[in-house]
Amino acid sequence: MEDLHQVSEALAEVDMDVLVIGRGSNMLVSDSGFSGVALTFGAFADYIDLPQKDDYPGTAPLALFGGSVTLPVAARQSVKRGLTGLEWGVGVPGSIGGAVRMNAGGHGSDMASSLESVRVFHLRKGREFELETDDLGLRFRGSALTDHHVVLSATLRLGWLSEGDSGEDRLTEIVRWRRENQPGGQNAGSVFVNPVPGEVSAGALIDECGLRGFRIGTAQVSEKHANFIQADEGGLSHDVVAVMAEVRRRVYEQHGHQLRSEIRLVGFDAEDNPQFADVLSSESDTSVATIRLEQIIERIFSSESRPDASIPMSVLSGSQLPSQEADLSPEVLDELREAFAKDPTGGIAQPETSRVVIVDPSIVEIESVEEVDVTTGETGSSSTRVVIVDEDLRQSTDDDFPADTQSQTVHHAPTSTRVRIFDEDGLDVSLAEIVEPAQWGAASSIRNRLMRVVKRSGAAPKNRRKQLLIAIASVVGFFSLLIVVLASPIFSVRNVKVEGVRYANSELIESVISSLKGESVLTVDINVLQDRLESDPWIESSRIKTYLPSTAVIEINERLPAAWFVGVDNRARVIDVDGLVLAVLDGRPTEYMLIDGVGPNLIAGATAAPEYRAAAQLAQSIPVEIQTLVKNLGVGGSDSVTMTLTTGTLVKFGEPVDMRNKLVNVVVLLRRQDPNGILEIDVSGGTPVVKSA
């Protein structure tokens, strides 16, 4: 969840595209890739909570699935528990979250037929919301959800298998049917949505156009099922979309139906591929239902009272999670802007690039070169091709340094009287060029050639000594200048900014600020100062950054209080979700959840026992609709965590292990039953055992 909040914070600063990936089925990514942030999910949304038939006789069973759970796993686990209604998912290689978004289905059923509610994280708002099925705008293979709506979990109303019914046989039959009727290999699933669900099939329309086996490049319409497109090994997604475009055109011409893509097309641009414009626009998620969904979310957002920002909530909670200072540094945000930020026209802003091309003259044929009279500056005919050559990468020729007409014989066949030209630096006379007396006009070019010969021969010890002395002087000068710069008051810290502080010791912060001021931004030892800051239990991590000429920024990441308990000395200990004692107070911090009972006299910075840590994690994770029912938490010895409701109901969690799943079971139970009629809920064994009042 912390990662989702960081993405949300980044989106608030940088306008960039987002792609939420479930299991990647029914998705086709452009050959050029996707320019933006792609999100995949780990185990935090991979959980299942299924009811027991004996526990809730006569009630419709509600099943809770995390957004990362795969449909085949959800289907098989449901049948194993004696549930029916999700068997169709056994052959769909997608996730629960993806299935909700596209209203996946098959074999006469879909998600909409059993979906009760979903928990969604809104990336633009940085919050979780519980949404009813009617809010989602579900339609045949589509919904109002976009990439800014991340499905965290879904609650489904299923049914119990009748006596004698074999859910396993049903699963086997569905798997067999899919293997016989749908192709395997490289494909993105069913390509087009049926134009009229239950009446007009996209596959049948494509078949009637005679397009089975139709191929473009590395992609072809499947011979086994016309609504699938197969790609060759190492094939191109461009070819797949080209086949889609042609199939869509043919079906419209022959049958009048505009096929809509069921596949998510990612990274394709209609401007770059105008021939695919119709296919790409048919896949658009923008709809009236999406606008309505955003209006519903906005009403929920506006109507809910904001809780104390210091109380964090978990994936189960529907209230706003704690307002934390962004953990994203300016450098990260700048990198995101440079890589993915959109320009005002809606495209991706590209850095300016040089138009200079380095050309190897040995392989370039110049079709037409502009001639310039060096005496007049006038140009000849305009060139039709301009070649820019990097002079450092080519060898000089006589065309670059032409000899005058009087000295041409010197270059080709010197036969005149020898005249020695002595070098002023005392070079060996054997290295001198030989010229005629009348050819002194060319002496300059000859001397240049002589110096090149000298450099190649390495016969310049005096020059080497000069170069060595110059190099030493340069190094000494550089370090002298560096010492002057480091000692200069111009680069001393004068301005200090502090970010992210709410609970931390103000005196400690001020002492660090005092230590920073006057130090050079180039040499200050920030590691020592960061260690000082992190000696405060409230500060989980810190970072000090310096900026020329005179600014330092202190970034603080604080721990968040989750619960409190009273020690033997009658003083309150505030702890976080890791059981770390953040503060010892004389008063009672009633804004946090109370852990009832008398605990140990721990000092700030100490770590409480595992049962206190488990209780603090419970306090953080209780959903908003249950929070009003909770009176307090409790610890009874080293192997017992309890929760007392305002109705007097006692919830026994037992040992502090597997607490998340235990809490999920309790939450599901309290959503189904009135707690006023419950005396005790014992979930210590994993499955709730209820004692009625």
TrEMBL record:
FAD-binding PCMH-type domain span: 1-161
Cofactor dependency: FAD
InterPro entries recorded: FAD-bd_PCMH, FAD-bd_PCMH-like_sf, FAD-bd_PCMH_sub1, FAD-bd_PCMH_sub2, MurB, MurB_C, MurB_C_sf, Oxid_FAD_bind_N
GO cellular component: cytosol; membrane
Membrane-spanning segments: 468-491
Entry keywords, A to Z: Cell cycle, Cell division, Cell membrane, Cell shape, Cell wall biogenesis/degradation, Cytoplasm, FAD, Flavoprotein, Membrane, NADP, Oxidoreductase, Peptidoglycan synthesis, Transmembrane, Transmembrane helix
Cellular location(s): Cytoplasm; Membrane
UniProt GO molecular function: FAD binding; UDP-N-acetylmuramate dehydrogenase activity
GO BP annotations listed: cell division; cell wall organization; peptidoglycan biosynthetic process; regulation of cell shape
Record pathway: Cell wall biogenesis; peptidoglycan biosynthesis
Domain POTRA residue range list: 491-559
The keyword Mitochondrion is assigned to this record: no
Pfam families reported for this sequence: FAD_binding_4 (PF01565), MurB_C (PF02873), POTRA_1 (PF08478)
Catalytic activity: UDP-N-acetyl-alpha-D-muramate + NADP(+) = UDP-N-acetyl-3-O-(1-carboxyvinyl)-alpha-D-glucosamine + NADPH + H(+)
Main location class: cytoplasm
EC numbers: 1.3.1.98
Entry-linked HAMAP family: MurB
Function: Cell wall formation.
Stated name of the protein: UDP-N-acetylmuramate dehydrogenase
Species lineage: unclassified sequences, metagenomes, ecological metagenomes
